């Protein structure tokens, strides 16, 4: 019988801890922890993400600084805004919602965020530190996966872990975190040969592909832990993951559902990183 990993429950528990740490920070410093969010343009999905992030801040006692710029904003305007947030002592974390409009130089803008305020963990320095297994702010989605695996008491050391997907925001940091936790890690992608066989060797299988129901039962070892990072819409417009949940679940020891698995942890880890950044600044 498989166990469902309940991302909502893990997220709620962690948000309780974050709230307490935020209160302690205020007692010590006399100010609230601050997270600045920058949204350029009117991408509807980005607007929803930003709204959810602001709401999550309010619920955990973190002050949010929302900064909205129009689609037509110039490189200089966005850079000026980010620089002002970098110099704002009330701002502990800066998040620039991606993707930015195509006319903007995303790399140049992101590089303005100093490593200690990079709460998305996407900067070269934080990614580099992760590779070196040094203290850093870790990308939120893979960090959320690790938090859930640890909280469930799932052994990682010595296990075969397979990550499908090699994006900079999910697949690569996920693989590094598993490696740093002493798993033997294989990273798969669209050019991987024998994908099915490799997946079948996984004690821990993480799917971060972006293709609905891609992982089927014949790709899963009996007793595997299956983590589904994917967020897709099926033909009826319903949310579904990269794993064919109904097909795969009976093979697993643990499995994350979509929705309600990895998703709820992502914003929580953003708050977690913001608290860590603030505490380190004291
Ligand atoms: P991405 O940048 O598009 O990367 C997808 C990866 O999957 C790529 O490395 C790609 O390989 C690989 N891939 C595509 N088709 C494949 C195939 N047939 N066989 C093997 N590998 C294949 O996507 P992402 O940003 O990492 O996101 C992945 C999924 O996670 C999406 O559904 C996204 O919405 C979701 N997501 C969820 C959260 C959350 O909070 N739960 C956060 C972020 C992302 P190549 O490198 O060779 O192209």
Structure commentary:
By secondary structure, the protein is α/β, with parallel strands linked by helices. It is 41% helix and 17% strand. The chain contains 10 helices and 11 strands. It has helices at 7-29, 44-59, 75-86, 106-110, 124-131, 140-151, 171-180, 195-200, 245-248, 263-281; strands at 3-4, 34-40, 63-69, 93-96, 160-164, 184-188, 204-207, 224-228, 232-233, 239-240, 252-255. The strands form 3 sheets. A 6-stranded parallel sheet has the order 1-11-8-7-5-6. A hairpin with a 5-residue loop joins strand 9 (232-233) and strand 10. Helix 2 (44-59) packs across helix 10 (263-281) and helix 6 crosses helix 10 (263-281). The longest helix is centred in the first third of the chain and has 23 residues, at 7-29. It starts with a strand and ends with a helix. NADP nicotinamide-adenine-dinucleotide phosphate binds at residues 141, 164-167, 169-171, 188-192, 195, 208-211, 229-232, 262-263, 266.
Topology:
Blueprint: E1 3-4, H1 7-29, E2 34-40, H2 44-59, E3 63-69, H3 75-86, E4 93-96, H4 106-110, H5 124-131, H6 140-151, E5 160-164, H7 171-180, E6 184-188, H8 195-200, E7 204-207, E8 224-228, E9 232-233, E10 239-240, H9 245-248, E11 252-255, H10 263-281
Parallel strand pairs: 1-11, 2-3, 2-4, 5-6, 5-7, 7-8, 8-11
Antiparallel strand pairs: 9-10
Bound molecules: NADP nicotinamide-adenine-dinucleotide phosphate.
């Amino acid at each position: 019988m498989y166990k469902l990993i309940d991302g909502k429950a893990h997220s709620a528990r962690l948000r309780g801890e974050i709230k307490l740490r935020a209160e302690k920070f205020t007692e010590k410093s006399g100010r609230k922890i601050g997270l600045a969010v920058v949204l350029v343009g009117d991408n509807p999905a980005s607007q929803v993400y930003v709204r959810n992030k602001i709401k999550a801040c309010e619920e955990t006692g973190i002050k949010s600084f929302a900064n909205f710029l129009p689609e037509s904003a110039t490189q200089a305007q966005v850079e000026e805004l980010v620089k002002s947030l970098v110099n704002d002592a009330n701002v502990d974390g800066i998040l620039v919602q991606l993707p930015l409009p195509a006319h903007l130089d995303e790399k140049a803008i992101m590089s303005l965020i100093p490593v200690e305020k990079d709460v998305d963990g996407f900067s070269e320095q934080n990614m580099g530190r992760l590779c070196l297994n040094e203290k850093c702010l870790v990308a939120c989605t893979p960090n959320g996966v690790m938090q859930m695996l640890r909280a469930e008491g799932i052994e990682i050391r010595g296990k075969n872990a397979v990550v499908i997907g090699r994006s900079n925001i999910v697949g690569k940091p996920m693989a590094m975190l598993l490696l740093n936790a002493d798993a033997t890690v294989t990273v798969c992608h669209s050019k991987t040969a024998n994908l099915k066989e490799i997946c079948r060797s996984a004690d821990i299988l993480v799917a971060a592909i972006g293709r609905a129901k891609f992982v089927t039962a014949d790709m899963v070892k009996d007793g595997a832990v299956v983590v589904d990072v994917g967020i897709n819409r099926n033909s009826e417009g319903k949310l579904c993951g990269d794993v064919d949940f109904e097909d795969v679940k009976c093979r697993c020891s643990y499995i994350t559902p979509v929705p309600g698995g990895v998703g709820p942890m992502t914003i929580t880890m953003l708050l977690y990183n913001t608290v860590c950044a603030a505490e380190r600044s004291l």
